[in-house]
Amino acid sequence: MSYAGVWVVVVLLAGLSAAGWYMLMRSLASIYARALVPAAWLALMLVPAPVPGFAGNWAPAFVVVIFEGLFQAEGEPWLAFRLLLAGVCLAVAVASLTILILRRRQQPTA
């Protein structure tokens, strides 16, 4: 499978699993949790990071963090970890802002 083909599979599976998280939380949680958990999950699965030792190749940052941190004796997981943390924080912030804007639009004006 080609490099682009693998990323298509990753994006499709991340989207399906985020939809699954949303469906699981539909009756259990507030609107904030129903929006924030899938947004954080998508960021966790889709934020890319460069693969050390393979110039020009990128992989999901969580995979790079796991393999560089746990399986490489001289691994460098910190760049991937910072990208992952920034992506998840940004996704949660955007989802929170979207929820607040939509809530404000739904409130009747006096």
What sort of overall outline do the alpha carbons produce when their principal axes are compared?
A: elongated
Output the number of helix runs. 4
N-to-C order of helices and strands: HHEEHH
Per DSSP, what share of the residues sits in E-state strands of 2 or more residues? 5-15%
Query: Which quaternary structure do these chains form?
Result: single chain
The structural class is: mainly alpha
Strand arrangement across the biggest beta sheet = 1-2
How much helicity do the residues have?
Answer: over 70%
Whole-Å distance between the termini?
58 Å
**For the report, how would you describe the main beta sheet?**
2 strands, antiparallel
Mean pLDDT: 90
Q: How many E strands?
A: 2
**What's the Cα radius of gyration?**
17 Å
Low-confidence stretches: none
Structure description:
This protein has 110 residues and is mainly alpha-helical. Helices cover 72% and strands 5% of the residues. The protein has helices at residues 3-25, 31-46, 61-71, 78-106, and strands at 48-50, 58-60. A two-stranded antiparallel ribbon has the order 1-2. A hairpin with a 7-residue loop joins strand 1 and strand 2 (58-60). The chain is elongated, with a radius of gyration of 17 Å.
